[in-house]
Amino acid sequence: xxEEKDNKLTKTFRFPDFRQAxxxxxxxxxxxxxxxxxxWWSNSYNIVEFRLSTHDSGDIVTEKDHQLASEIDKVYNxxxxxxx
Length: 84
What we know:
Blueprint: E1 3-5, E2 8-14, H1 18-35, E3 40-44, E4 47-52, H2 63-83
Antiparallel strand pairs: 1-2, 2-4, 3-4
Helix pairs in contact: 1-2
């Protein structure tokens, strides 16, 4: 579940290994580019962490962030279901 704190929408995703985390990041990059809303993220081995905010609106959480968060969840769910 996404959590809003410190004017950021945050969530951490865990994967079985680095390769799956990287595939996830590649797919999220495509979605973010399509939406023209690019996230701050961090990756360490199998963990990908997001902190979403809209810089153009004063670095606060906006509808753009909620939309991107929803799309990120869709990517994660598609990868999770195909891995099963």
